[in-house]
Amino acid sequence: MNQQSGNSGERNKSRDVVVTGVGFCLPGRTEPVFTADDLWAVIANGQSCLKRDEVYYGSVELTQEMFDERLPDVPPFFSRHYTSAHRFGLVSMAEATTDAGLTFYGGALSEAAILVGRGGIDANIESYLSVLSADPDKTSAPDALELFVAAEQALTPSDVALVQAALTQSNGPCYTVSCGCASSAVQIGNARRMIAQGEVDVAVVTGVDIFNVHLIQNIQRLLSGAQQTYDDLRTTGMPELLPSFSSLMRPYDRRADCINHGEGAATVILESREHAARRGAHMYGQVLATALTRDGLANPLAADETGAELVAAVRRCLGDRWRIDDVPYVHGGSDGNVLVTAFEAAAIRELYGPDSDVLMTSQEGCFGHNGAPAGCLGVAMTLLMMERGQVCPTANCEQPVDGLPFDPVPGVRPRPLDFDYALSFNYQLGGVKSAILLGSPEAV
To answer: What would the pLDDT profile of 298-320 be if each residue is shown by its tens digit?
Structure first.
């Protein structure tokens, strides 16, 4: 599926799609990451905000005071039933609208598209089980009403979109996409299309997910119990297949053997250039094109190590208007999974040749693999790098894998680079591969 338009013929520059605001609710070193400057302080130095308690995990640790400071007027009848996903998504939206010079109160975003990407269901489980286990004969009327409100807000993947749309009083398009780690990347493409075609002038795109740390800990215990049996059955020379969440994730590093999860949200504000210019908004950059593919494999958990469909997505994204040689930086989607590194490397080799000097980095090791936020987060981080003329290092990468056809910028220092175009990748295991072409504000 190619979501790109306008690659040929006369271009309507007023419908260029620009990013004017970014906001976050992500794990931090001492307190959550909320703003672009907070984010940069972490990613520019390759810092890891993962903490170990049996397993490595990125926890936001958002307090009630932090929430109330950013959203002081949310009716408590609804807010007391918010899950962590609701809270993270609302906070990141509040930060992004502030960054864009917009307000989400009073109907100011009444015509905006409110688009959300969701992958996991962990935040919905508690509300689901509470209703499922409730005894109608022993539940008072007030308690039944409370259960009903909680269920209506939290039992579907549309949970965050529901409360965001209510808070903004939006009359515009509002829906959720769920395709794992590519979810908000797909919504970036949907927002770009809507704006380019004149359907809306503003789109608020949020990715938010929760991974239950107790679930991950139990998976670790289950795998540890299975390890001895696996070792006994393993044939000589067979590689280790069972991950250890108690190790630190290291994308593109020769020691990579696991994925660490995290939680949180990222929001990006997209506008038409005309709308942004009319109100004097700061423009981080442009979303020039997006494209989606899938490997076409029957195994729902598989990926093609040749990277052929990722190559196809990039070429569809570039079309006949841009050349791969114009793109010196790629924001990779590696989460420490060696399979992801394999197909990314194969794709880069096919696109750029075996001896390219392209830089490709991943900051998943900063906050943990957080699922649906990855698309919005990748766009935000890449545009910040472009604006500040520095490529951030791959977090936790110290000993790059031999033979990589790209420079993963190992270590803890950013690399100077003046660039006007970049690609950002996101993947759903066994599903969507997303490529997004980004440009500086005046790139053509």
So the answer is: 888 788 889 999 999 999 999 99
